[in-house]
Amino acid sequence: MSAPALDAHTPFSIDSERLDSVRADVRTFLRAEIDAGTFVPACDSWMSGFDPEFSARLGSRGWLGVTIPEQYGGHGGSQLERVVIAEEVLAHGAPVAAHWIADRQMAPSLLNFGTEDQRQKYLPGIARGETFFAIGMSEPEAGSDLAAVRTRAVVDGDSWRLNGTKLWTTGAHLAHAMVVLARTDGEIGDRQKGLSQFVVDLPHPSVEIRPIHSIDGEAHFNEVVFHDAHLPQSALLGERGQGWTQVMSELAFERSGPERYLSTMPLLRAWVEELRRDGSSEEQQRTVGLLTARASTLRQMSQQVARELSAGGHPDVLAAMVKDLGSTFEGELVEQVRRASGVEPRFGGGRFAELLAQGVLHTPAFTLRGGTNEILRSIIGRGMGLR
Amino acid sequence: MTSHRDDIRDAVKQILAGSEPTIGAPIAHWDAQSWTNLTESGFADLGIAEESGGSGGDVTDAVDVAATIAASGVCLPIIEHGLACWVVSTTGLAKPTGTGTIGEDSSGIVAEESSGTVLLSGRISAVPWASIAQWLAVFDGHSVAVVDLAADGLVVHPGTDILGAPLCDVVMTGVVARSHAPTTVSASQVRSRGAALYSAAMAGSARAVVDATIRHTSDRTQFGRPLAKFQAVQQRLAQLASTVAQMERAVDEAAEALATDSTRAAVALASAKVVVSGAAADVAAAGHHLHGAIGFTREHPLGRYTGSLQSWRNRWGSADDWARVLASQILDDGPDLWDLITGGSDVASSDATSSDATSSDATIGARP
Fold first, then answer.
1. Where is the Acyl-CoA dehydrogenase/oxidase C-terminal domain positioned along the sequence (chain A) (predicted)?
2. A110: exposed, middle or buried (C-beta count within 10 Å: 0-12, 13-18, 19+)?
């Protein structure tokens, strides 16, 4: 494993002035973009706000691939700098879905497990905001029980053949590549053993991508079917049979990031703007204060995970706590703002009503994606020595 | 810094181990011996400058002492005594001997100056520990009077909180103040410090609830296996642990921000009291539920911790009170909500620890 992605040698607080200045720059940029009308702040924009041009603009300013070493087109910055940028784009509801998975997960994954060729091939594009990734983990029979994956890759001469179906694959119809967890060895009953990861370039003649229309009226998710898809030998990511370990090593990043408590922050900010303009009742003030306090504390917890990750630690339990508390908070925020505002969530009724509608429609996903909260609690329980 | 804080916590634990603590709830009698040990070793007035008669250190030390005592289940007047000594220290008056206390709201007291002495009359409600303390600090937002609790004209109407700790009404009729002087400290500063100390104490009690609950569910066997092996029990226990981790994070952030006088202090402190007071009842409920009926008995130590959580939730402002303080910082032409949370460079200075002009004075009102 290489150190750069984990940023093991950069203490968290060493450069808070630099972090402040990055934050201020990103904020200025985002405000200008909003003023120019290039995007309208939205809830859950890291999942549904797909805008390649916006991603490229972030990339050209050096705000993607922050932790990727310069030799691969990145910026050799700290994990904490990445967190600051992520916090700002999320709180402003910016359309970051196109590059989100590539920047958050694939960059560290390629740095940790990828071959030199794979790094050269994908990382510069990720840093420019031009190469987008999807992640194929869940399957029709493997949702929360990820070790039950049936997608199988078999060796065929000097290449691989892939068969199976992935489900809930966000952005696969728009991504340039997809990382797939598949069984290469053993049987389904072997569970975590015998799994491997592959990078599949898209589009691919034998990969069928069908949209899944969700209750928000959109189609961010896909069903991805591999019809005996031929993959070059070089598609294997990391070590054969080590897929489970590789996937798990990324989870602390995935689970504790600011997107686990900030998905509905644009709604709260928009409501506060309304209250500042129109005045507020005591009950509304109370709600604003309660939500602000929780968001502020969740941010402290999330940053604590980032600090521990940066120091080379493995805060899996704390990361699971952040996601359990944070994703619950995202939904409760919507409910409390709806109740205290008295506004009907709808489309075409103004920006605030629309944000509220987005929040209501997206809430069911918050506590499911990235591992259900029940799974997270069992991880916490194991960490407490209960099993 | 971390090791210094660990040292303080370890030292307090050691002192408390020096005498047999009472357990169970409600409290039958308070732990006078522990209090004597603690005061004699200088841990009762940490966070007060040495030149003012304290033991030095900053508010972080006082917070750690309060949290450690609460987590041990020993019931002591540490917070009120510390606050009273600190308020007196800001006037330049000498620190009175013996145990002091302070009420949250002294607005019902009228002071009259007559030939060099100050006479106090009126009522202060719900003063913790007034029945065992020797002196009372009366703070009116501008000055501090020290009153002997055994003085002529002063009556302590005894009572207790639901934990059984003294919570008394103090009524004064022309009581001569032992000393009296103006202070530069503001009402919001006193409230902030009180809220920080009680937040820390509640986080300490909450941690003890988690520890006791893990022990109980691991030891207690039902249906042929320990309770902790049941998924439903594990899920609730995990949620309890997450909630308490959140409380502790909030308290740490508040203590560090207060100690460094950072511009984040106002937000961090209010957030801590909102998060801690807001979750206190849930923590107590989960602890009791997972202990079953066993935790409901007088002899069981759980009652100390859950009783503390329930008794202390509203001390120095409830979750709702502090939520409104936070909201007013945002809604009354303050910085954007997100700016406030991140404490970024464009945050307007809103430091409750050094400014009396924050709106917290207006919103945390006098209690009935």
1. 241-384
2. buried
